[in-house]
Amino acid sequence: MSGLILKLGPKERVLINGAVIENGEKRSRLAIKTPNANILRLKDAIHPEEATTPVRRVCYATQLILSGDIDAEKAKLQVLRRIEELSRILTDEDSRQHLDEATTAVSEAQYYRALKALRALLPREERLLTAQLQ
Questions:
Q1: How far is the CA of 12 from the CAs of 6, 21, 92, 123, in angstroms?
Q2: The model's pTM
Q3: Using CA atoms, how far apart are residues 38 and 18, in angstroms rounded to an integer?
Q4: Segment 127-134 long-range contacts (CB within 8 Å, at least 24 positions apart)
Q5: Following CA atoms 41, 6, 3, 83 in sequence, which dihedral angle do they give, to the nearest 10 degrees?
């Protein structure tokens, strides 16, 4: 098992098991060997007040699992329900692929992979919400 590979830019910060780690002046690559470590890139983090749309809310819930702020087993069903709700709205093939990937990842307790799949939906959601307002 190779683990998770994090590629960090200069001064980029990451939360690993509750500890904030900041990279130095140069790009670096970290191999996380511990299975089920709670890892969150802080540049990808959504703050609570930013969780104002359906996709952002499910991303935020997933990130809380990654950061270790909520129990994964307790939150898993909630995240899966929110993904199911999104699948009723985002019905195009590309969105379905991301949602299916997120569902599979959550089912396998691969929350980093789930967050990555869900974050891919953020630009689409933004476009849909902007078009709706016009």
A1: 11, 8, 34, 23
A2: 0.85
A3: 8
A4: 129/53
A5: 40
Query: What is the distance, to the nearest Å, from the Cα of residue 25 to the centroid of all Cα atoms in its chain?
Result: 26
- Give the separation between CA 57 and CA 46, rounded to whole angstroms: 9
Distance CA 38, CA 108 (A): 15
Residue 9: CB atoms within 10 A of its CB come to 10
User: Which residue positions in the chain have pLDDT lower than 50?
Assistant: 1
- In degrees, rounded to 5, the angle at the alpha carbon of residue 46 between the alpha carbons of residues 39 and 78 is 75
C-beta separation of 62 from 114 below 8 A = yes
User: What was the pLDDT predicted at 2?
Assistant: 62
| pLDDT for position 64 | 93
**pLDDT reported for residue 96:** 95
The pLDDT tens digits for 55-77 are: 999 999 999 998 888 988 889 99
> 115 to each of 10, 22, 38, 101, 134, how far by Cα in Å?
23, 21, 13, 10, 29
**Would you state the pLDDT for residue 43?**
86
